[in-house]
Amino acid sequence: MTTAIIDSHLHFWSLATPGHEWPTAQTPTLHRDFGPDDLRAAAAGTPLAGAVLVQSQPTDIDTDWMLALAAREPLVAGVVGWVDLSSPDAPLRIAALAADPKLRSLRPMLQAIDDTDWLLRDDLAPALEAMLAHGLRLDALVQPRHLPMLVRFVDRWPDLPVVIDHAAKPHAAVGTLDPWRNHIATLASQGTHCKLSGLRTEQAPGQPADELAPYVDHLVATFGERLMWGSDWPVLTWFGDTYARWIADARRLAGLSGTEQEQLFAGCARRFYALDGCDLGARTAGEHVEWSDAGNVGIRDE
C-alpha cells in the first residue's frame, strides 16, 4: 500500500532561546539544537508529509520562536503552543496567537505541575473560554495521576477538543495497566482523542517494543479513529530508538490496514488539528513514497 504520514507530535528547540529549560547536559544525546533539517535526516526513507510541532518550553518566547519557524517551513503543518493559562493577560495572548494560521492548540505542561487538579482551577476559565472562542484545542500532557481530573475537566468543558499526549504516559516499564486502563476507556467514551506516541520512552532501557502490546491494543480498541500516531522525536532517540523503527513498531502493534491504518498515521491528526488547508508538501518533487504491507518504507524517483 502507499500512504503518507502526518506526525502528530514532534519537537524542535534551540538551546540559545531565552528561558530554555530542557533538555539539559544531563541528557547529552538531546542537548543540542534540533530543527527541520535534523528531522529530514532522521525521517529519511519514511513517507513523512507533514508534522505538528509541539512546545517543549513553558515560555512565550519558545512559542513565538516556533511560530516564526513554522511560517517559513512547509513541513510544519500546525503548532501546539504554550500560554500561562493562569495569567490575567491570557485571553489577550491567546487572541494574538490565534491570528497565526498555523497555531492549532495549546499545551500547559501539566506533568510538571505538582497540583494534580490545577486544570480545574476557576481562574483558568477566562483562558479556556478564549481558547474556545478562537477555535483552539487542548493538548493534555498528563500522567496516570491526572486522568480522574481530566474526566472531570472534559465534563466541565465538553466543547473544547482534547487530545491526550503520549496516552497519558502509562507505567510501561513495570507493565502496570490498571487503573490507567479504565480511566483511558472513560476518556475515550467522552469523545477525547489520544496520541500513540511517547510510549517507548516510558519503557526501561532495552525493553522491547513488543511489551507495549497490551497498551496499544487497548488504545486501538477504545479510541478507534480518534487515535493518532506521533513520533515524539527527538525525545524518541533518548533510548536509542529511530524514527523509522517506531513507525514500523507502531504499525505492527496496532495491527491495522487500509483505511484504519491511514486514519492512525494521517487522517486523525488531519481532522483533529484541521490541517486540510495546509500544504503538506514535505517530499521533494518527483518522489513517490511507497510503504509496503511488509512494513518496509522506501522512496523511489518517478
From TrEMBL:
It comes from the Bacteria. Belongs to the metallo-dependent hydrolases superfamily. PANTHER family: AMIDOHYDROLASE, AMIDOHYDROLASE-RELATED DOMAIN-CONTAINING PROTEIN. SUPFAM superfamilies: Metallo-dependent hydrolases. Coiled coil: none annotated. Residues 6-274 form the Amidohydrolase-related domain. Gene3D superfamilies: Metal-dependent hydrolases. This is Amidohydrolase family protein. InterPro entries: Amidohydro-rel, Metal_Hydrolase, Metallo-dep_Lactonases.
